[in-house]
Structures are given as C-alpha cells and as structure tokens.
C-alpha cells in the first residue's frame, strides 16, 4: 500500500512548481532568416590570441567536447565562458575553435561522457535558444530557457523520470512535469498535444509532446528545478 504522506508531498511539490511558473513569456519573434546575426560564425583558426586583462587560459575545442563539459572540467561558471567569448548558441560550436576560459590557471583535458554519467540531462529538443534563464521579458523573469522550433516538433524527455503532471494550463498550453526521484524535476510547456499521461514512467529521450504555437511564436519552454527551486538549465545540458 502506498504511503499517503508521500502522495500528499508529491502533489504539494507539483502544485508549487506550477504556481511558481513565470518563465513562459509571450514575445514577438521575427523571421528566422533575420536572426542569422545571433548565430556563431565559425572563423578561421586564430593565429594571434588577444591579450586579456584578467587571469585565464585559451582552450581549443576537441571532438565531442561541449561548452558545458569544458566548464565542468575547469570548474568555471558556464555563463562566464559564454560572456568572455560572446557565445550566442552553445550548441553551435565546432572542434578547432579557440575559446577563453576566465579564471583558469592551466590547460586541462576535458572529461567526456561515460556510462556512469547517464543520469545527466540531454536537450529536450533541437532548436534556436531565444531566451535564457534569468532574462527579463515583459516584466517577468525567465525561470528556464525558450527554444524556437517548428510547430509540431517532438519534445523529448531530458532524463528518465515519472510524469507527475500532464495537462493544459491557460497561458502555458499543455505542460509535462517529470519527477526524476533525486530532488530534480524538469518542466516542458507551450505544447499543443501530449504523448504521455499522469503516472507514466518515461525514459530519457522518450517522446513527451508536440510543440504548439502561441501568438505567432513557436517555442518550447523548458525548466530544470532542484527541490522545486528553478536553476539554470544550461548548467546541466551537454
């Protein structure tokens, strides 16, 4: 028999997650063709590296390395790397690119993902990052990230978990919340159709929903929360 106290606690957590949701913001988005200026332009290898006024090292990106993994290896906040290198899309970096790691004192070998790291999150969908965690939009603070995609694109589970919420919310569209059973939750909203039901156990990369359209904008709002407190998803995504 299930412990009723556990059920009440889980319901309370889900209610708190929903009530504290304020990251989904309506915004006018232009033609994707007009956003090319926001994307990284891969330039020829740098032969003369610019001098910096503060401590750090230059790191050459190798195959399978990601900005997130590099930040973890050097124990540097990922946002510091993004700012120091004017990176607009951390999913669009290539091997051979040279980036500056602020605060680092020596070049390190980046540890790549192993089987022991399978509990880590993956991107729920591939698209253009149009709003970051903590950005102010229409008087609200984004508690997650917004990813522009085509209408109907399939949303994937960022990690294995159990569905603790799957329903429609006014202003948010159809939403899915997964409980990963280790203090972490992930939230997916602005969907037009759900592919899972309350109580389902879903594995990482399983299909959850189809992205919908809102005010002529088509994007997924994604959040990662630890102990019901919102955290920057870019700290966890590869």
UniProtKB/TrEMBL annotation:
<dbReference type="InterPro" id="IPR016047">
    <property type="entry name" value="M23ase_b-sheet_dom"/>
</dbReference>
<dbReference type="InterPro" id="IPR011055">
    <property type="entry name" value="Dup_hybrid_motif"/>
</dbReference>
<feature type="domain" description="LysM">
    <location>
        <begin position="57"/>
        <end position="101"/>
    </location>
</feature>
<dbReference type="Pfam" id="PF01551">
    <property type="entry name" value="Peptidase_M23"/>
</dbReference>
<protein>
    <recommendedName>
        <fullName>LysM domain-containing protein</fullName>
    </recommendedName>
</protein>
<dbReference type="Pfam" id="PF01476">
    <property type="entry name" value="LysM"/>
</dbReference>
<dbReference type="InterPro" id="IPR018392">
    <property type="entry name" value="LysM"/>
</dbReference>
<dbReference type="InterPro" id="IPR050570">
    <property type="entry name" value="Cell_wall_metabolism_enzyme"/>
</dbReference>
<keyword id="KW-0732">Signal</keyword>
<dbReference type="GO" id="GO:0004222">
    <property type="term" value="F:metalloendopeptidase activity"/>
</dbReference>
<dbReference type="InterPro" id="IPR036779">
    <property type="entry name" value="LysM_dom_sf"/>
</dbReference>
